[in-house]
From TrEMBL:
Coiled coil: none annotated. Residues 463-626 form the Very-long-chain aldehyde decarbonylase CER1-like C-terminal domain. InterPro entries: CER1-like_C, Fatty_acid_hydroxylase, Sterol_Desaturase_Related. GO terms for molecular function: iron ion binding; oxidoreductase activity. One of its GO terms (cellular component) is membrane. Belongs to the sterol desaturase family. The chain crosses the membrane at residues 46-66, 127-146, 185-211, 326-346. Keywords: Membrane, Transmembrane, Transmembrane helix. This is Protein ECERIFERUM 1-like. Residues 139-273 form the Fatty acid hydroxylase domain. GO terms for biological process: lipid biosynthetic process. It comes from Solanum verrucosum.
């Protein structure tokens, strides 16, 4: 929102929320009916029916740029601006598709009102030339002076400051303007289109190409990584007057009073508003190499729909906790395609970058879904991917690599799925294979245990421990029994496994119970809905596993998986970690950061556990705050 919003700031359909696309429905239905059902051949016009595919192609085009930009800026090579992107920018730019709806309405209305727009040919060379000339001349010239006018304090404070709220831009920043600004922009861009319509030189190709050109140049100019190779300007030096670069327009967002041109910098040269550092920043950005982080968190995909919630997926979905959406079933072709890609593509990829004080962080993802970790024939492939990631981190000089989700799966965990072999024993397998590793491998179990223990209400005297046993579960049981808190198990096999791990003194507080009276349940994977239904009303379910239980009770409380609230000095946080609320990070991921901050020179994997109190104190000292039931309940009510 601009600092002093002017008239026509809001879009007319803002009140419709997610149903805003319904404003196009009458035109889509009419064009479809007319083309397929009309008996009059003259009414069957490909121009009318093709408007919808054009709009859909623009959405896909924009999304490709979003994903590409987020991937490249996370890696760091050729990145232009290092300033972070936060949730407020994602929320502000979440309505980037409004301009596509607006243009769609105008295309449909224009077609219905203008007889000359009917039955356009597929191609006309003269129309394409006219559009090119009119864009280079009147459109670029008028835009330059409109843009300078928008930087006058009166218009800037009421309109254009909304766009400039984003210093580190993303491709969709290009279309984040108040409604009134888009009216003026469409007026400019329609000059070539209307001219060809009224002169009879319009064609489907010229319309589609011009709209695609505008989208391409807009997205490229705001993508925040340099991609135009230097040899292009070497071959044809005058090109620098007719095509800007991402670094060129980036200077406009950081300096504000230079580089006003639309796509062709010639008017900045003519009117002396060219930023003197344009060439320097361009060459510097081209030479910039990929960033080497201090800490890497290695995660993986969860459900087939999780691809949309990745930071590289849909920005608005990634900025909120992972929840199922009703419209995902409509996207099953895309989901199926993404599954095939992840099965074929066999390399870990960078998902996110962050900064914590002076520590550089990255998140890498293994292109495998949760279900694949339980397929025996996939185990070797997954282990190889994890091993390759660890070796790559070691070769790059990365200090710490933390294992997230099932990348740290223990043999006890996998035994529940009839696997006799180990997956990787919480990372221990790789240390045995490569004892010379300098990178520290961290499974984060100690902090996960500490987070669970500090989630248990004070004064609790007895708890139920139910779920598949893991390194974390054993450590929780031991810590509670040593503190004099009674731990009840509901299955004899779990009781025997736990009892074998406890000291004789601690084992006195471990009991096998058939009673469900306790209102504090520590739960892991494998908790059934039937067992949840047996818990008393008001029970607090506290997960110790990486994945949350499937909620079966509305009269009980469900805590988040082990996690903590991040401090404000964690930068570039614009997406949620799976199902966790905004600015909440899993204990396993935090553990890697603490490892680097504290300079701990030990691996935490296999059976290795750090001092729980020491790890917890370190997390609090560095600004991480424990989650509360209020925080968890508030987030659950929003979703």
């Amino acid at each position: 929102m601009a600092s002093k919003p002017g008239i026509l700031t809001e879009w007319p359909w803002t009140c419709l929320g997610n149903f805003k696309y319904l404003v196009l429905a009458p035109f889509v239905c009419h064009s479809t009916y007319t083309y397929f059902m009309s008996k009059d051949e003259r009414q069957r016009d490909i121009v009318y029916i093709i408007i919808l595919p054009l709009l859909l192609s623009r959405i896909i085009h924009n999304q490709i740029w979003i994903s590409l930009s987020r991937y490249r800026t996370a890696k760091g090579n050729n990145r232009i601006v290092d300033k972070s992107i936060e949730f407020d920018q994602v929320d502000r730019e979440s309505n980037w598709d409004d301009q596509i709806i607006f243009n769609g309405l105008l295309y449909y209305i224009g077609y219905l009102m203008l007889e000359q727009a009917h039955h356009m040919p597929v191609w006309r060379t003269d129309g394409i030339i006219i559009i090119g000339l009119l864009h280079s001349g009147p459109v670029e010239f008028l835009y330059y002076w409109l843009h300078r006018a928008l930087h006058h304090h009166f218009l800037y404070s009421r309109y254009h400051s909304h766009h400039h709220s984003s210093i580190a831009t993303e491709p969709i920043t290009s279309v984040i303007h108040p409604f009134a600004e888009h009216l003026s922009y469409f007026t400019l861009f329609s000059i070539p289109l209307f001219t060809t319509v009224f002169t009879g030189t319009a064609s489907i190709a010229s319309f589609g190409a011009y709209v695609t050109y505008i989208d391409f140049m807009n997205n490229m100019g705001h993508c925040n990584f340099e991609l135009i190779p230097k040899w292009i300007f070497s071959i044809f030096p005058p090109l620098k007057y007719f095509m800007y670069t991402p670094s060129y327009h980036s200077l406009h967002h950081t300096q504000f009073r230079t580089n006003y041109s639309l796509f062709m910098p010639m008017y900045d040269y003519i009117y002396d508003t060219l930023d003197k550092s344009s060439d320097t920043l361009y060459e510097k950005s081209l030479k910039r190499e990929a960033e080497v982080p201090d800490v890497v968190h290695l995660t993986h995909l969860t459900t087939p729909e999780s691809i949309y919630h990745l930071r590289l997926g849909f920005a608005s979905l990634a900025s909120n906790p992972h929840t199922s959406r009703w419209y995902f079933w409509l996207m099953w072709p895309v989901t199926l395609w993404s599954i095939m890609i992840t099965w074929i593509y066999g390399r870990t990829f960078v998902v996110e970058r962050n900064m914590f004080k002076n520590i550089k962080l990255q998140t890498w993802a293994i292109p495998k879904y949760r279900v694949q970790y339980f397929m025996k024939w996939q185990r070797e492939t997954i282990n190889n991917l994890i091993e390759e990631s660890i070796m790559e981190a070691d070769q790059k000089g990365i200090r710490v690599l933390s294992l997230g989700l099932l990348n740290q799966a223990s043999p006890e965990y996998m035994c529940y799925f009839l696997f006799e072999e180990k997956l990787n024993s919480n990372g221990e397998l790789y240390l045995k294979r490569h004892p010379q590793l300098k990178v520290k491998v961290v499974d984060g179990s100690s902090l996960a245990v500490a987070a669970v223990l500090n989630s248990i209400p004070k004064g609790t005297s007895h708890v139920v421990l139910r779920g598949r046993l893991s390194k974390v579960a054993y450590s929780i049981a031991l810590a509670l029994c040593q503190r004099g808190i009674q731990v009840a198990t509901l299955h004899e096999e779990e009781y025997k496994r736990l009892n074998a791990k406890l000291t004789r003194e601690a084992a006195t507080n471990l009991v096998l119970s058939k009673s469900y009276v306790s209102k504090i349940w520590l739960v892991g994977d494998g908790l059934s809905e039937d067992e949840q239904l047996k818990a008393p009303k008001g029970t607090l379910f506290i997960p110790y596993s990486q994945f949350p239980p499937r909620k079966a009770r509305k009269d009980c409380f469900y805590f988040n998986t082990p996690a903590m609230i991040t401090p404000k000095h964690l930068e570039n946080v614009d997406s949620c970690e799976n199902w966790l609320p905004r600015r909440v990070m899993s204990a396993w991921r935090i553990a890697g950061i603490l490892h680097a901050l504290e300079g701990w020179n030990e691996n935490e994997c296999g059976d290795m556990m750090f001092d729980i109190d020491k790890v917890w104190k370190a997390s609090v000292d560095h600004g991480f705050r424990p989650l509360t039931l209020v925080t968890t309940s508030t987030d659950q009510s929003k979703n």
